[in-house]
Amino acid sequence: MKKPKVYKNFINGEWVKSHTGETFQNINPANTDDVVGIFQQSDDQDVDAAISAAAEAYKSWRLYPAPKRGEILYRVAQRLLKDKEEISRDMTREMGKVLAETRGDTQEAIDMTYYMAGEGRRSFGQTTPSEMTNKFCMSIRQPLGVCGMITPWNFPIAIPSWKMTPALVLGNTVVIKPATYTPLSVVNLVKAFEEEGLPPGVVNLVSGSGSSVGQPLMTDKRVGCVSFTGSTDIGRKISEACSPDFKHCHLEMGGKNCIIIMDDADLDLALEGSLWGAFGTTGQRCTASSRLIIHKKVYNKFTKMLVERAKALKVGNGLEDGIEMGPAISESQMNSVLEYMRIGEKEDGAKLLCGGGRLTGGAYDKGWFTQPTIFGDVEPGMRIFKEEIFGSVTDCIPVNDFDQAIEFANDCAYGLSASIYTQDVNRAFTAMRDVYTGIFYVNAPTIGAETHMPFGGTKHTGNGHREACTQSLEVFSEWKSVYIDFSGTNQRAQIDNQ
Ligand code: NAP
Ligand code: MG
Questions:
Q1: CA 305 to mean position of chain CA atoms
Q2: For ligand 1, is residue 252 a contact (CB within 6 Å)?
Q3: Ligand nearest to the CA of residue 186, numbered in listed order
Q4: Does the Cβ of 220 fall within 6 Å of ligand 1?
Q5: Domains in the chain and their CATH numbers?
Q6: What is the DSSP string of 38-58?
Q7: Helices then strands (H, E): number in the chain?
Q8: Tens of pLDDT along 431-449?
Q9: pTM exceeding the 0.90 threshold for the entire prediction
Q10: CB-CB contact of 252 with 475 (8 Å)
Q11: Which of 334, 343, 417, 326 minimizes the C-alpha distance to 378?
């Protein structure tokens, strides 16, 4: 087999080895014989070098005209489009989701980069009349400085692009730590920036573990903002690490999203949505449809339809044609999902309707494949109702009526995404208003975000910020209110002039 390529950190415009001299392997979860690449196992000294480079580069990058920053982003988007197929293949190899989905992930980064390129000529503030004659008021955005980014493996290029592009267009510089399972996708993104003329030090990439790279990145006083996507447990640590210095802290975390299927729903449509929402990306999406709340009148019919289709899903290597679901990201993630299958079987009253184990035999033995798994008669209070599983498992939850469906939907520690299938416009709008999440869909599953819409969630999913769209500009900038007095006199504001 070909010797795997060695990938380096990107610091101050150079690809460099970690000073530790240590590396780690990036393995294909669909075929563990396939080593995708060798990456740097960095530590706090590498992080220190990257932050120093970013702090130095910030001095000139913040003064670089924003439209010109946008032009670089525009060229990066074009390059990502040109290299889309290669980038997507790399991504399927490194994290397993099927090629159609990794193409979607890359496309999301392209869309986001084009969108933020436009902000180079917008980044609008406000102008407003003053209380006084011959005085002018405006608000302008100012960048924060060095922004630290810590990203997960399930959307390995889309999520880094959601964070990097708004930060950069506003004049911030970046140090990014990719997830250990997916550094190659971030290398591919950073290469596009390098090749399209981003000045040295403006973006820096340091690979390595959460504790040795993520930890020093979030605690360094020179970092003005930490943007994180990942689990709620790590997000809480990041929030605590940012609080002593009151750093901007942006957290996008877990989910336990539901689809409500009412008795008047188009069941065929709800079936397609539920399958896609539950088993797309092997259920490893923060927005995965992991709770299906189904009206009792259609419960038996719908679960039967769903089980039949779930059993027929083609699971395998995402690079092969016709495969609908790839592997779990890793052995430990697979084991955690298998453990939840056992927990589900032991829940009093829950019924295993299909799946429930690992897929073995032939090529399956080389990867971390789990069966599409559905539990029936799931109720609030059960662990599989409450906890994020992040794998190929979904729950069917019978409800008596619409009000109970809303109650169960909100009976959740997380608040990322929810949806309803119904033909009744009154119910659709009521659910839209009453389900407390950051994202809501009608007659579509809980997945399918678009980059020009704010992305994020309530409760334990987030800390009040939003990714993508113009809302993400709030994370990476501070407002400055500016008053210009051209009266030539010492005018007092209304509050000082009573
Ligand atoms: P994770 O374990 O929290 O890891 C996320 C990132 O944090 C990785 O880069 C990880 O590095 C790093 N990290 C781990 N421990 C750290 C520490 N002590 N200090 C600093 N950084 C640390 O999450 P994951 O398993 O990769 O991703 C799955 C989770 O992400 C799920 O809960 C999912 O819902 C959530 N997610 C949320 C969204 C959203 O937008 N709401 C989107 C996608 C995923 P290593 O890779 O080196 O461990
Ligand atoms: Mg990998």
A1: 31
A2: yes
A3: 1
A4: no
A5: 9-253+462-481 (3.40.605.10), 257-442 (3.40.309.10)
A6: EEE---HHHHHHHHHHHHHHH
A7: 15, 21
A8: 999 999 999 999 999 999 9
A9: yes
A10: no
A11: 343
